[in-house]
Design brief:
Helix content is about 35%, strand content about 15%. The chain is an alpha/beta fold and about 350 residues long. The chain folds into two domains: about 230 residues, Aspartate Aminotransferase, domain 2; about 100 residues, Aspartate Aminotransferase, domain 1 (Alpha-Beta Complex). The strands form four sheets. Strands 2-10-9-8-5-3-4 form a seven-stranded mixed beta sheet, sandwiched between helices. Strands 11-12-14 form a three-stranded antiparallel beta sheet. β3, α4 and β4 form a beta-alpha-beta unit. The chain starts with 5 loop residues before the first strand and ends with a helix. It binds pyridoxal-5'-phosphate. The site of pyridoxal-5'-phosphate has 11 residues, from α3.
Length: about 350
């Protein structure tokens, strides 16, 4: 493809070109079935194979241990903000959250609709430029779980080591960094992620849940909002988003062919280092938003001396084929989202643009 943009969108985001091209070939007729996958019953053998293969690949690539269920649900990660307290909070227990930025705050506000919420640690006083240390964490004795946001997509911060919460289940929102590196799933009671950054198109949300947490919730919880409903039916209780799950499977095949979680980490660190080195060696022309120890390898956030200059950067970069570099409207500045599928060459091109922009405006 001649004019493929340098896509730095925060989500939905870049997908591997090979995956798109292969999906295009299979789009009208899947195999020799006489129809598109999108036209098939989710109860048929062809779709079921895709469904279980996607799950198996995810289990393999994330090294998900026995004793965890993998669910494909809908409603985005935002619906998980409600499902988690609805399913896991009990009378007399508290939901503990680590307040690290915009997405953690949304999860906290949603949980407050359903019960008692405690802030186990917060970096609000530091404008969410950093991830709190494990020592800062204060978990109430009656905590039902501790929730953290593995990667704050908007601020550009990321946990490097997850805290040990002992017998209290740890829950991770990994919407913007799932499979960007190997993780120890056994540290978590529940992991969730909207697919539209590292795993595929929007439309499916992955939930990895330890089986002992799939209990009947207290009170009246709608059938579709119970983990037990989806776990019991292998995510086939109702019609799943078949095309999104198929695409996630294709992306996972690409991840596997490119070195799995370790391969993704090497690729992502190379890209992130290129950008952070450019920022740090700019003599203050570019200023990274996140503190050094909390920098994300998925969303690189930075500022320029004035908003005027930031606007100019966004405008000129767009004219040169770079997409999605304007920071989120809530925090301003600039942001390059460099998820798994973003090719290192695109980051090299961006670094070239950044140096050129500085030479003209520094
Ligand atoms: C860390 C994080 N959590 C949650 C969400 C919300 O996801 P969704 O749009 O799938 O509800 C996003 C979306 O960008 C995100 O980045």
């Amino acid at each position: 493809m001649a004019n493929r943009a340098y896509n730095f969108n925060a989500g939905p985001a870049a997908l591997p070109l090979e995956v798109l091209e292969n999906a295009q070939k299979q789009f009208v007729e899947y195999g020799d079935s006489g129809m598109s996958l999108m036209e098939m019953s989710h109860r048929g053998a062809i779709y079921e194979k895709v469904h279980y293969e996607t799950e198996t690949l995810l289990r393999e690539l994330l090294a998900i241990p026995e004793g965890y269920k993998v669910l494909f649900v809908q409603g985005g990660a935002s619906t998980q903000f409600a499902m988690i307290p609805l399913n896991l909070l009990r009378a007399g227990t508290t939901a503990a959250y680590v307040a690290t930025g915009s997405w953690a705050t949304k999860a906290i506000e949603e949980a407050k609709l359903f019960g008692e919420v405690a802030i186990a640690a917060s970096s609000e006083a530091d404008s969410y430029k950093r991830i709190p240390s494990a020592e800062e964490l204060k978990v109430p004795g009656n905590a039902a779980y501790v929730h953290l946001t593995s990667n704050e997509t908007i601020e550009g911060t990321q946990w490097s080591d997850y805290p040990d919460t002992g017998s209290v289940p740890l829950i991770g929102d990994m919407s913007s960094d799932i499979l960007c590196r190997p993780i120890d799933v056994s540290k978590f009671g529940l992991i969730y992620a909207g697919a539209q950054k590292n795993l595929g198109p929007s439309g499916v949300t992955i939930v990895i849940i330890r089986e002992d947490l799939i209990a009947k919730p207290e009170g009246a919880v709608p059938t579709m909002l119970r983990y037990a409903t989806h776990a019991k039916a292998d995510s086939l209780y109702n019609t799943p988003p078949t095309f999104a799950i198929y695409m996630a499977g294709e992306v996972l095949k690409w991840v596997k062919a490119n070195g799995g979680a370790n391969g993704m980490e090497a690729r992502n660190r190379e890209k992130a280092n290129l950008l952070y080195d450019t920022i740090d060696s700019s003599g203050g022309f570019y200023r990274g938003f996140a503190e050094a120890g909390s920098r994300s390898i998925m969303n690189v956030t930075f500022r320029l001396a004035t908003e005027e200059l930031e606007k100019q950067f966004a405008k000129e970069s767009e004219a040169q084929g770079f997409v999605g570099l304007k920071g989120h409207r809530s925090v301003g500045g600039l942001r390059a989202s460099i998820y798994n599928a973003v090719p290192p060459e695109n980051v090299q091109a961006l670094v070239g643009f950044m140096r050129d922009f500085q030479s003209r405006n520094g």
